[in-house]
Amino acid sequence: MSDRIRNIQSRIKSKIENGNEFYAVVAYFPILGWIITSIKADKKDKLVYFHKEQAKEINLFIIFIYLVVWFIENFPLTSWLFGKNKLFYPIIETVWLLGFISYLFITFFGIYKALNDEIWSYPYRDNIKNKIKEIFRKVKSKNT
Asked: The pTM is what?
């Protein structure tokens, strides 16, 4: 068992010394990781760039979920149903909890894949990005 642990430690150490996997892992830490990878990482490295962009998307998603839940709980028109100790409060807290658990799972899986020098995209990533771009395109065309 100790040989397996030493083997894993030596693999991680060799990957961290390489640098690319280290920066790909650091990218998953919100804000600070994005800044570090933008400054220190090689611009042409596809692994770091991919994980940096994916980490931004994942972290922005959890921030979006948090803001939506906060808004629903605190906005006067919805707080009487979804505010603390109100009728639908458990539903909104369940949404927040499931979102946070999903965030943690996807983040740790992305870190694992970055350590293994793999480019792994979370499920439906391209579909979600295309839908968001389509929504922004429609909003932009209505404003012009």
From this structure: 0.70
